[in-house]
């Protein structure tokens, strides 16, 4: 048996450990964090993955040790927790059950596992430490700021505020053992120690409603400090704290005041003593640095002539800087940030640059992206280089900016005139493909510009490729659209004066996104945002955090609260998130019942089936009643669906049995009333027979017994004949259309919708040059008032359909989190091959199938400690070879179901052939 140990850090907190029997444990994690510092969960969950060449590996038991020091853990002393040998095949979300942990405590842990292939050695040591757990520990740390405008600043429709440069020189008199910073910088901050920026994050921290909760970040700064004089420095930007439209439309737009900061630096010396440096009135600042304005909607202005060399280093003369003042705290409770910050996640080189007849240049990035532009320029002191961002061009080659509304989307760089100058902004981002560059004295070259792609620091988990190039490009467009709209919360669009976290955009979209990105912590954080925005009587807003005061009391939008929680359970096996949020979900579901349920139907709806393809290509919203679905139909069907989810959540949460009985009885009443009012037994249709009106009761199992196929055939006629094989649904209907068509046997029709190139379709967007997903099906022709070219809401369930129905990568509802994988592609939909992968919480799942008239090949990878139910397109086991062996010769463990052979495969890599 091999006994070898090896470190390999993944992200910031995971590693490999090679153990006995060639069993590797990897991605050892605590609370799925990328940063193990500053956890404020007192019972964190521990997870590990396997990587091994051994097939059919199943965990039978584990033992976790947690110690207060690495030395104790190395000698197998679990003084904080020794789980003992636990008979279990669970390897994710193991809840810590040891001694109570206090603020700033350190915890070191490792795991040993037993499997049907043998036992492992102890894994290498992993580590986390606790954050500041109580408000009292922050109480003596004062918030500092300066609630005043300075020359050049303004408040109003186009609020403008220069960045505040803050510094504090400190003297550390002893040798330093370790040092940790806890920082809350509102709205955005960059933190420096002795001139060095700490961390690679940008636009930190993640946004919240600061009157409800405020996130703090934690950094180990031991290596940045030294004995003697040191300088702590911060640049405070505005972010959503000093709002993009500060004090403009205060009835709608929430603002929080001037930027402010609270910080603790805890230093432990080698002699065992500790010292804490905190923000107070001795810290100094200047509003006269180079960042003259930074506004998420309007852009950043940087005057290089006003740079402050060495402002964040020792011996800088700050005699003319002002002292900061103690200011009012934001009001929200202080929480450790348990989701990663944003980061520069990629770069895009421009494709072309063309001169205009206006003396400017148009830069084409070749891809609608989100982030900013780095520039390299030369010129005289005072020269201005102006960058104006847009998603598309007019016919005359100039920027199309009408769809940006009043967002100025302009960065300005004022040169200092000192050779080549390289600059990029700090506190803004833009959604753009094209940039108009003005102020240059000579034609620039492409290598003077570089696009920086910015979104939350999360891994890409999914790949997909198939035999249809249109579908491949749609996937790429979805990938770019999703990543661009992750900004510490899921926003609707990144370019105009909106950029809001609308609930309705992610009701089902979050589920599809989870196949492409590891978005677990992002959406767990977002559920907290929704919870914090709930009114005392139970209402939930349309946008959360509620930066806009929109409380429409709908169902199809607000239902995202439940649907996203269900996604986290289904995709990541996270039952805790359901237990934590169940009381608030129950409060909302009862609030809607008590206020809007009339005659057992849900009467409240605000947005309808938003963005159905309109009757005219120039308009945004259809006025044709035959295209529109009654709001009561939408809200009643959706409310019924959510009641079914609440029954499931009540079981998971071990709620009172009366809850389950109430949801069940109420659902039955709603279903009965819905069918009585809206189901036409003569035409087998609902309401006015829109596709949405029919697909919802089909998807939610509301159709009377034995009539489902007739309703489905009626809906197929609407899609296939009346709409000529094109989409006719809006945001609500599109969430269930692709899967419902496939589940009822018409995957071929779903494939036609997915591969169409004519209007309205996703392929139509591709054919018209889209590199992301549009807000409207007619986004190239509609009124510019609402035609963002980077939205994701119209994806609906398309990405789910790609993975679950085409690739055959689906998590079992019985064993969620891909503990059991359902591999049941629709091989007859129209594709000749699919090659997809997904990095699940248990490991990599792969599905690569190809077929022609005479042969079928399917290569499958099933992660260790999981299994897969595999559905083969044959009923003859003798025609099936698995790893070159005939199925009927090597196994009897298969069955026939719906003209398919069904077999269970344990972990491993398999090559399946059917002749």
From TrEMBL:
<protein>
    <recommendedName>
        <fullName>alpha-L-rhamnosidase</fullName>
        <ecNumber>3.2.1.40</ecNumber>
    </recommendedName>
</protein>
<dbReference type="InterPro" id="IPR012341">
    <property type="entry name" value="6hp_glycosidase-like_sf"/>
</dbReference>
<dbReference type="InterPro" id="IPR013737">
    <property type="entry name" value="Bac_rhamnosid_N"/>
</dbReference>
<dbReference type="InterPro" id="IPR035398">
    <property type="entry name" value="Bac_rhamnosid_C"/>
</dbReference>
<feature type="domain" description="Alpha-L-rhamnosidase concanavalin-like">
    <location>
        <begin position="355"/>
        <end position="455"/>
    </location>
</feature>
<dbReference type="Pfam" id="PF17390">
    <property type="entry name" value="Bac_rhamnosid_C"/>
</dbReference>
<dbReference type="InterPro" id="IPR035396">
    <property type="entry name" value="Bac_rhamnosid6H"/>
</dbReference>
<dbReference type="Pfam" id="PF05592">
    <property type="entry name" value="Bac_rhamnosid"/>
</dbReference>
<feature type="domain" description="Alpha-L-rhamnosidase C-terminal">
    <location>
        <begin position="808"/>
        <end position="884"/>
    </location>
</feature>
<keyword id="KW-0732">Signal</keyword>
<dbReference type="Pfam" id="PF17389">
    <property type="entry name" value="Bac_rhamnosid6H"/>
</dbReference>
<dbReference type="Pfam" id="PF08531">
    <property type="entry name" value="Bac_rhamnosid_N"/>
</dbReference>
<feature type="signal peptide">
    <location>
        <begin position="1"/>
        <end position="19"/>
    </location>
</feature>
<dbReference type="GO" id="GO:0016787">
    <property type="term" value="F:hydrolase activity"/>
</dbReference>
<dbReference type="InterPro" id="IPR008928">
    <property type="entry name" value="6-hairpin_glycosidase_sf"/>
</dbReference>
<dbReference type="Pfam" id="PF25788">
    <property type="entry name" value="Ig_Rha78A_N"/>
</dbReference>
<keyword id="KW-0378">Hydrolase</keyword>
<feature type="domain" description="Alpha-L-rhamnosidase six-hairpin glycosidase">
    <location>
        <begin position="460"/>
        <end position="806"/>
    </location>
</feature>
<feature type="domain" description="Bacterial alpha-L-rhamnosidase N-terminal">
    <location>
        <begin position="174"/>
        <end position="345"/>
    </location>
</feature>
<dbReference type="InterPro" id="IPR008902">
    <property type="entry name" value="Rhamnosid_concanavalin"/>
</dbReference>
<dbReference type="InterPro" id="IPR016007">
    <property type="entry name" value="Alpha_rhamnosid"/>
</dbReference>
<dbReference type="InterPro" id="IPR013783">
    <property type="entry name" value="Ig-like_fold"/>
</dbReference>
